[in-house]
Design goal:
heterodimer, A: mainly alpha, 2 domains, 11 helices, 73% helix
Amino acid sequence: MLVLAGIAVIALGFLLRFNPMLVVVVSALVTGLAAGLDPIRILATFGKAFNDSRYVSAIYIVLPVIGVLERYGLQARARALIGRMRGVTAGRLLVGYLLFRQMFAALGLTSVAGHPQTVRPLVAPMAEAAAEAQAGSAGEAERVKAMAAATDNIGLFFGEDIFLAIGSILLMKGVLQGYGIELEPFQLSVWAIPTAVAAFAIHGARLLLLDRRLARSG
Amino acid sequence: MIGLGFVYAVAGAAFAGFALLAAIERPRRLANAAFYALIASSFWLGDRLGDVGNGVLVLALVAVAASGRMTRGQASADPPAPRGAGLFVPALMIPAAALIGTIAFKALPTLVDPKQATLVALTIGVLAAVATCLVWLRPGLATPVREGRRLMDDVGWAAVLPQMLASLGAVFAVSGVGEVVGRLAAYAIPSGSLFGAVAAYAIGMALFTMVMGNAFAAFPVMAAAIGVPILMHGFGGNAAPIAAIGMLAGFCGTLMTPMAANFNLVPAALLELRDRGGVIRAQVSTALPLLAFNIVLLYAVLR
């Protein structure tokens, strides 16, 4: 039971806002000591696993490409795709954004959009403006803005696992390898599709309900 | 045979380039430079450092990250005239190469390590996309590295957090955390009940993710506690859906925790919401039904 102390360290460390990297290392130390491992053994176990899981961080080689393309206006192009949907309701706008976010994430283009890049400058103001026109007042602005951020997260989480080389797919592959189970990324990413469809249906329905709520409050 | 060695050589070169620019271009960012240089060493030399050596490298990374001296990226200066929709072509080359290469390299098992086909193909796609950008846009040789570094600076130390959490998972495994959680779960699961085991696995993933703020950390624990011993060995279930759907159940937990600060707290601040938990509140009604869907889906697949 004592080995669960490491989990308490994580929860406490995040709660007290220590640097997460530090919290993780302290948690590893506490857990290992509780299990009766000596510190050098803990360091070696951590170091070996870090070295064995380098492929998780290999994905950052795409950043130079994305960075150059952004410099030449990739984001503006992606925004233009969304911008054509102007004039629809807040709910329908966000359904369109949800689809866009899921599809781009599924292609591995996770950094084409995001909270700083697209939600704050573009999606949230557009949804807010549409909602104001629907309700005739800005009374629901908080809810609509929060929904815009939520839509970005849901589109990202339930799209990205369809891409073959995303970190979580590679992590699953690595963990199962440790049990002698060899899986290809493709076998895992196929199983992300049903949940992606369900996420679109559930969140999409909630967004359309938001439209009805806005119409009623107007 | 082309395999991970090739991927790591390219990744090491990218981080070495980030480190070099952070060290020499003004304003100098020595903490960022040190961090990237350590990651480059890990990619290039990791296999020669030994386990304790790699542990020391991790401690150095943590020291730099915890110093609080790493800075975020700065917007790139004087952007050139924007280009048209052709920009999507190099961007799409990378996923297209990953997809095509994964299938094509299966036919060339002597040339490319079949286990690493996707990563090798992705790396080749990146190299092709960089070459296309250099020829088409003529931005100068250092520009991809400079722009990549700008994005890397924004990500900061969070970049290696998934790798750190995977390593914490390894220490948890050696220490038997999964077994302890598994014993606790065994009390909760009615013996022989597939539905009970699936529900405990998926809900456990979501709860553990909420505590750890990240499904990456929860997965190794729940795989050791329920996924591998009960669902895969006990019930003889197919490993691929158990892993993939379990991870997605964890993502439902990510939607409901302030620990996942970058997804839930940062946007609330960016959008100037009065309620710091506003984004989480907006997500709960999607996360819970979706978690239920994942439980039913996994049960239906394994039944």
